[in-house]
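Notes continue from the previous slide.

Worked example: a multi-chain complex. Inputs as given:
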Amino acid sequence: MTYALKFQDLSLGYDRQPAVHRLRGEIAEGSLTAIVGPNGAGKSTVLKGVTGSLRPLQGRIAFGGLTRSEIAYLPQQSDVDRSFPVAVADLVAMGLWREIGGFAGLRAAHRARVAEAISAVGLEGFEMRPIGSLSGGQIQRTLFARLLLQDARLVLLDEPFTAIDAKTVADLIGVVRRWHGEGRTVLAVLHDVDTVRAHFPRTLMLARELVAHGPTGQVLTAENQFRARQMCEACTGPPHTCGRSPA
Amino acid sequence: MWELLVQPFADFGFMRRALMGCIAISVGATPVGVFLMLRRMSLTGDAMAHAILPGAAVGYLVSGLSLGAMTIGGLIAGMAVALLAGFVTRVTALREDASLAAFYLISLAVGVLIVSTRGSNVDLMHVLFGTVLALNDDALVLLCSIASISVFALAALFRPLVLECADPQFLRSVSGLSAMTHFSFLALVVVNLVAGFHALGTLMAVGIMILPAAAARFWAVSIGALIAVAVSVAMLSSLSGLLLSYHFSLPSGPAIILVAGLAYALSLVFGPVGGLAGRAFPRRHLEA
């Protein structure tokens, strides 16, 4: 099976201090993979590396025939300024960026697709509402509608189901499974292991370094989870220069 | 009523020029002020206004009270401070507000020092508080040109700028326009402050940017409406401030900014979007 992403001895971090160290592995094209690990394990950092907003300290990410424009990224909700006066339909329409860019206008066909995406996530009637008036679940539905319009081959989700109601989680998991069914590659940072077990066939467990990667049942073991916590706790000491030679 | 509101402009060319200059600044600078406010950068605007002083002062040192020299000097100084502050933020642990504060304070001190060593207190007052009643044709052409450039540039930048404000991570993930948008916006701030400084001075120029924008926040919820309300408030403040200054012999720049301040205070109390009166006497809510 071809890969969508290949991590080649990848180190990512901030101010020379790695948040992810020497990561290796492949994400198969069309796979539905969860990234799990304790707080500070580097899960969101990996996604930022894939989007290109964070440059590798070492190593590289190989894209199996994908271009950056074929990647859709859902950041954590805290990254969205909800006090900014923008309407739901306008934020969703940004998902058409690849087609309309920064400057072209929206045509009637574009507006119809925006309405369709909003409807697909159950937000009919909210089109003109400012995003500041939405609940956590509604804002997440809005961001998923934007992802739908991006029509991407690789979808990156950073904690997509955090702090939202059970009904919204169920609806949005339905959207994720639909993407998987359409052959898109989905990589999601998640905290809830029950959700991962129930819906994600593959899991990559991180604790700054790779703990395990493979079928979810084989990765989400008590032993691996314990080891991940220990590895993260061991990383709290003062930084030192990496002495390992590249593989 | 005619004598009160129209006569000063009908009789005196300098009043018409002042009004025209203020309207140009309102159209160009106030929409930029709306984005400064929405990006929580209102005080950044104030810092940038101080940062243009040494450039204007060097222009003054070289050519006296020359419009071109002071404009070019102000633009260079403002852009240099914006770029240096941005550079320091990106390559060190210092946050942008701190690096900007450091550079603008140094700039302000250098500017006052330069003006003081060569000029008189009158010249310093000219640079700090502007001379809206002494705008000549060249200054008016400059203000109107900058307003036109600003409006077109903001229209072109509108979508990436909105996204850079609302969801910068997303913009970075779909486009390489993020840094260009940020620095183009800072350039627009500097250009408009330089325009404003000719009329209102370096200290007051930011007032016509930020006060109408802050007032508009209490009347409108969409960006388009915010800009429309802010520009209207800025124009009315300019008109009222000039009339007050004419009839009561007040300095024009502070009169305009104080009227804008009054508009802000009234909006704070009576504005329907989160104003104090609305909070004290809430209307009955709608059916679910």
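Summary box: Chain A touches chain B through 28 residues (CB under 8 Å). Chain A has a mean pLDDT of 89.
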